[in-house]
Amino acid sequence: MHIPDDVLRLWDKYGLDEGVRRHCLTVARIALKIAEKIRENSHDVDMDAVLRGALLHDIGRAVTHDPFQHFVKSAEILRKENVDEKIVRVAERHFSAGITAEEAKKLGLEPKDYMPETLEEKIVSFADNLAMGDREETFEEFMKRLDEIDRKNPEMRWLTERTRERARRIKEELERLSSLVF
After folding, report:
1. Of 32, 57, 100, 172, which residue has the fewest beta carbons closer than 10 angstroms?
2. pTM greater than 0.85
């Protein structure tokens, strides 16, 4: 996979960790596979937004590893760098399977909607859920990871339950459009 020069420049400028870079590459591979199948089925997909969005979705991890802040920081960095807003929104809305403004407020974030809306946003968000570090997982393994979060942090069950529901809806939509089974 070709990594665009502007992506490499941003990774280097912000000192993005090698492990995060490998994760972003894994997300990009998964996302491009899904997007290509959707395109083969005669649906319009912005492949550049999928590629760049996947490669830059975790740029915020260069400044924070807080799971509830990194996607906000990713969007801030990308806006500061004048990256196309379509790609910014892919990064901003990738966390989990999205969070509502009400949930964002409960997590201490600006009460803003972080739900993936476009096809490109949904593809990258879903691909991120299937990437554990630099390893591709099945959807079932992702669901088991949510179970583990429930066991370790029962106070987060309200969010993991919503994530399960949303991830299943995105999975069904992407399976229908791509003819893939996750």
Report:
1. 172
2. yes
